[in-house]
UniProtKB/TrEMBL annotation:
Keywords: Coiled coil, Hydrogen ion transport, Ion transport, Membrane, Transmembrane, Transmembrane helix, Transport. One of its GO terms (cellular component) is plasma membrane. One of its GO terms (molecular function) is ATPase binding. The chain crosses the membrane at residues 406-430, 451-469, 558-577, 589-609, 664-683, 787-811. It is a multi-pass membrane protein. Belongs to the V-ATPase 116 kDa subunit family. GO terms for biological process: vacuolar acidification. This is V-type proton ATPase subunit a. Pfam families: V_ATPase_I. It comes from Ramazzottius varieornatus (Water bear). Residues 702-724 are annotated as: Disordered.
């Protein structure tokens, strides 16, 4: 609690690192993670600093590591992440690591080039296989396979290689065959028809199986085509169209025997190529598998090396070029650990001259550092989201650990919903290590996982408040036995059946000499007195349930709000005492507390007094707190009426001398306004004048000295009770500042107290919405007393469970979370919390590694 109550004390220190041990000492500081360094070379361009070449080499190695990781993902090779934290390697190891990575990159790229070439050859052979198969089918079916033996000379004249020529009845017919992407077939056919004006016979056929693109690995669909034409002009045009559509033309023989022979050759080559591809892929897989074992380790080492050199670029170098000088903010309690780290670094570098650290004085405001763990980090994040606390001011986080989930549970109070929330958070806690090992969890999942302890406490507190409200999935449990025993029931009534339907009966808790009371101080398990824990379950069946619970929750909200705000004002006194602003205690803390207690503290006392003073027999004469509060501020006096038996009915007055006390409280509250507004500015003006008089008196009788002393006097006034800006302000500035804060506080007390009524409003909305879902869904299933009711109930339960989780737990939980956040940020923290500091960001390898992972993801 001591380290969380205030931020840790910080000191600005100078580091003197010997050039031989600078790298090792900096690496040790990164392992400790307790120093926030300042850049002493802000005026120097990043490309002109000393270690820019080393950083470029590290960037190049990170590029190679990203390349290797990408290749492992493509090959589906798992990267081994053991969670190890190796020490930063020595500078001489950088060369070995760089050569190893470059060798792996060259080897993987060569294998990739060869593998892509083999796959491209395989694709061409597969396409050739389908073209030959389709050519054989086309020629045999259309009767074109019968060629005139005398036409051989004509065939040679028409061309060889990719063209085949057929002579039939003195007519020379040529054709081109190949493959084209399936999505381009329609446009290809249309353009061929246009350029030939219908003189080209084009036949296409889809390839049955998808092929693999050798460059991307994606599946592609293709089709074979055969274009029959006459003349060289059309051949040239068709070739140009094929080039435009990225179609591939393959040589096809002009006889079935040659087609069959070429098909056998293609099949043989495919089998050999398949074996070669398998061996190449196996070799590539083995190389990547060996790399994946060390990939995470190499990544951490490279990131540490780069972080060390990046920090060393922020150091100054003395004129002798033998010492690096750096400045950093360091927590006082980590000074010894840093000195030991510098000693270890010097020993590791085998440097005879030790490096050392020395504190220096400064007027700068240190950064704010709260040491947290995995439990308190989520609550500290809630506070820091409003604003990082000013250096050494009271930290609301340790109190938020209890108040935040409690106020959430007051609005969310349902034991069933809280149990589900606690179970889900408990699952995250159970699988904590496995989830933390995953890298790409997603932004929303990371946020939820980071607040797992908050969600768990919110669930536990919701179970508690749900039991207090006796609300479990909108139903009440009769655990200890209800204290209500109705004397009137349907068995002893003489009303007609039609009049009995829908009739309501009022239970009378007042004792009766003849009939007794409907309320008894006896229950199950020999437990006497009122219902032991929470609300009596009989209220769940009453028609005035909402009226009773509303009154209870509304008063409870006001009580919690007043205590919460009063606690915030008390914490402001701790700030004033620590920073030695004694005038703020007298001019701000005391009048603020009196103002709050005179107005709403008195209201809380009346609430408890009403609960204890009036019972069931005198409830008809119980006063209205709202009307009483209005009459108090209006100073309106209304006499109490008389009962029929002549006794006094306390409708307006609770006790004797109430009118005098309330007038005194109003007067005191009104006097607190000028107290807060004027006392501090007048005190500071008096103090400035006193210091100025002392300066003038000490300066002597010389007029110039007097005038110069008066001109210097405002700058010599101590800043006691100031606003933390480090200098004194004029009377007008202080008066304006104090006026704004006084008006804000006085009006805020009223609005903030009303704002706490959201505890009642959201609790009512949650319970009513839960009851509506029950009546709309499960209740109808339970009302069917047959086999169909079981089927309907089974179906409706799924809808009710989804609606309960999605609406009541997720959406209503988010609403209650945001309202609890507002109550802490606005109503609680503005009483004492400035939040104008800046966070402590130490040089830490752990944060460097996690940030680099987020950037990669």
């Amino acid at each position: 609690m001591g380290t969380l109550f205030r931020s840790q004390e910080m000191a600005l220190c100078q580091f003197f690192l010997q050039s031989e041990a600078a790298y090792c000492c900096t690496a040790e500081l990164g392992e400790i993670g307790a120093a926030q360094f300042r850049d002493l070379n802000k005026d120097i361009n990043a490309f002109q600093r000393k270690f820019v070449n080393e950083i470029r080499r590290c960037d190049d190695m990170e590029r190679i590591l990203r390349f290797l990781e990408k290749e492992c993902q493509k090959e589906k090779v798992p990267v081994l992440r053991l969670g190890e934290n190796p020490m930063a390697p020595m500078p001489r190891e950088l060369v070995d690591l760089e050569s190893t990575l470059e060798k792996l990159e060259r080897e993987i790229k060569e294998v990739n080039v060869n593998f892509e070439a083999l796959k491209r050859s395989n694709l061409e052979l597969l396409e050739m296989k389908y073209v030959l198969k389709k050519a054989q089918q086309t020629f045999e079916l259309d009767g074109m396979a019968v060629l005139n033996p005398e036409s051989k000379s004509d065939t040679e004249l028409l061309g060889t290689g990719h063209d085949a020529t057929q002579v039939h009845r003195g007519v020379h017919i040529s054709f081109l065959a190949g493959t084209i992407p399936l999505i381009k077939v329609e446009a290809f056919e249309r353009l061929i028809w246009r350029i030939s004006r219908g003189t080209v016979l084009l036949r296409t056929s889809n390839i049955e199986f998808p092929l693999e693109d050798p460059a991307t690995g994606d599946e592609i669909l293709k089709a074979t085509f055969f274009a029959f034409f006459q003349g060289d002009t059309l051949r040239v045009k068709i070739r140009k169209v094929c080039e435009a559509f990225r179609a591939t033309i393959y040589p096809v023989p002009d006889s079935p025997a040659e087609i069959r022979e070429m098909s056998i050759q293609v099949m043989t080559r495919l089998e050999d190529l398949k074996t070669l591809i398998g061996h190449t892929q196996q070799h590539r897989h083995m190389v990547l598998l060996a790399s994946a074992k060390n990939l995470d380790l190499w990544e951490i080492k490279v990131q540490k090396i780069e972080a060390v050199y990046a920090l060393m670029n922020c150091f100054n170098i003395d004129t002798t070029q033998r010492c690096f000088i750096g400045e950093a903010w360091v927590p006082h309690q980590d000074m010894e650990a840093i000195r030991l780290g510098l000693l270890r670094g010097s020993e590791k570098a085998e440097c005879s001259v030790p490096s050392f650290i020395t504190p220096i004085k400064t007027a700068e405001t240190p950064p704010t550092y709260h040491k947290t763990n995995k439990f308190t980090s989520g609550f500290q994040a809630i506070v820091d989201a409003y604003g990082v606390s000013t250096y050494r001011e009271v930290n609301p986080a340790p109190f938020t650990v209890i108040t935040f989930p409690f106020l959430f549970a007051v609005m969310f109070g349902d034991a069933g919903h809280g149990f589900i929330m606690a179970c889900l958070a408990g699952l995250l806690l159970w699988k904590e290590k496995a989830i933390m090992a995953k890298r790409d969890k997603g932004e929303i999942a990371t946020t939820i996982f980071g607040g797992r302890y908050i969600i768990f406490l919110m669930g536990l507190f919701s179970i508690y408040t749900g039991l207090i409200y006796n609300d479990i999935f909108s139903k009440s449990f009769n655990i200890f036995g209800s204290r209500w025993y109705p004397r009137t029931s349907i068995y002893n009534l003489t009303m007609e059946a039609d009049k009995l339907a829908g009739a309501t009966f009022q239970l009378d808790p007042t004792p009766n000499a003849l009939l007794g009371s409907d309320y008894r101080y006896e229950g199950r398990y020999s437990i006497g007195g009122p219902y032991p824990f929470g609300l009596d379950p009989a209220w769940a069946m009453s028609s005035n349930k909402i009226n009773f619970i509303n009154s209870y929750k509304m008063k409870m909200s006001v009580i919690f709000g007043v205590f919460h705000m009063a606690f915030g004002i008390v914490l402001s006194c701790f700030n004033h005492t620590y920073f030695k602003r004694r005038v703020n205690i007298i001019c701000e803390f005391i009048p603020q507390m009196i103002f709050l207690m005179c107005m709403f503290g008195y209201l809380v006392i009346l609430i408890f007094y009403k609960w204890t003073k009036f019972d069931a027999s005198t409830s008809g004469c119980s006063p209205s707190l709202l009307i009483g509060l209005i009459n108090m501020f209006l100073m309106k006096n209304e006499p109490n009426p008389k009962n029929q038996d002549g006794t006094e009915c306390h409708m307006f007055k609770f006790y004797n001398s109430q009118e005098s006390l309330e007038k005194a409280l109003v007067v005191v509250a009104v006097l607190c306004f000028p107290w807060m507004l004027l006392s501090k500015p007048l005190y500071q003006r008096w103090r400035q004048g006193r210091v100025a008089y002392s300066t003038v008196r000490a300066a002597g009788s010389d007029t110039e000295s007097v005038e110069s002393g008066q001109s210097r006097s405002p700058t010599s006034v101590p800043d006691e009770g100031g606003h933390g800006d480090g200098h004194n302000e004029g009377f007008a500035d202080v008066m304006i500042y104090q006026g704004i804060h006084t008006i804000e506080f006085c009006l805020g007390i009223i609005s903030n107290t009303a704002s706490y009524l959201r505890l009642w409003a959201l609790s009512l909305a949650h319970s009513q919405l839960s009851e509506v879902l029950w009546n709309m869904a499960l209740r109808k299933g339970f009302m069917m007393n047959n086999i169909g009711g079981a089927i309907v109930l089974f179906t409706i339960f799924a809808w009710w469970a989804c609606a309960t989780f999605g609406i009541l737990i997720c959406m209503e939980g988010m609403s209650a979370f945001l309202h609890a956040l507002r109550l802490h940020w606005v109503e609680f923290q503005n009483k004492f919390y400035q939040g104008t500091g800046h966070a402590f960001e130490p040089f830490d390898f752990k944060k460097t590694h996690s940030t680099a992972r987020l950037d990669q993801d």
